[in-house]
Design goal:
The chain has 179 residues and is α+β, with helices and mostly antiparallel strands. The protein contains four helices and eight strands, in the order E-H-E-E-H-H-E-E-E-H-E-E. The strands form three sheets. A four-stranded antiparallel sheet has the order 6-5-8-7. The radius of gyration is 23 Å and the shape is flat.
Length: 179
């Protein structure tokens, strides 16, 4: 899991609970002291609402495991100007971090990963051709009625791609990873 930014105040279910927590602790005799602290928050540049950080599960590509290979391959490229490969890009590769792929926003590009509910099976789809073939298997297994990729107006974005159910090797349904 990784850390991801979400603006809580954009959530329709958001409400401050500080007073509720303090009252609950006091009622149970667990409140040591209640104080108010003022401190700076990062704020959204568009809405001026506070941006709060919280941990969520996330998908990463372990790019850090390939750091040495990436750096070595970068040295084989004739960059023009050379400062790009040796400087900005080269420095970035030398300090590469694992890449967070998760997209929890509605308009984000959906990850092409399908999983069974129990997480026993997962499949990453690499192309539309592969997805068409997997949907055909799901149709044959009775998990889907129609291949939406066969329609000229198919939209591969959410929420349309989320209607595609694939079949696992044991016959159980696989659903697209929501993050």
């Amino acid at each position: 899991a990784g850390r991801y930014v979400k603006n809580y105040t954009d959530d329709p279910d958001y409400r401050p609970v500080d007073e509720d927590i303090a009252a609950h602790l006091k009622q149970r005799g667990l409140l040591f002291r209640k104080e108010t602290y003022e401190h700076n928050y990062p704020h959204c540049w568009r809405t001026d609402k506070p941006v709060l950080y919280y941990p969520i599960e996330a998908w990463f590509i372990r790019t850090s495991a390939l750091r040495e290979k990436l750096v070595a391959l970068n040295r084989t490229i004739a960059w023009y100007p050379s400062a790009i490969g040796e400087g900005r890009f080269g420095n970035w590769l030398e300090n590469v971090e694992d890449w967070n792929l998760s997209r929890s926003r509605y308009w984000g590009i959906p990850l092409p990963i399908w999983r069974t509910k129990d997480g026993k099976y997962e499949k990453c789809i690499g192309s539309f051709a592969e997805l068409r073939a997997e949907v055909q298997k799901a149709i044959q297994a009775g998990l889907m009625q129609d291949n939406p990729l066969g329609h000229s107006d198919f939209d591969p974005h959410r929420p349309y791609v989320d209607t595609i159910i694939l079949v696992a090797p044991d016959g159980s349904p696989m659903y697209r990873e929501p993050e």
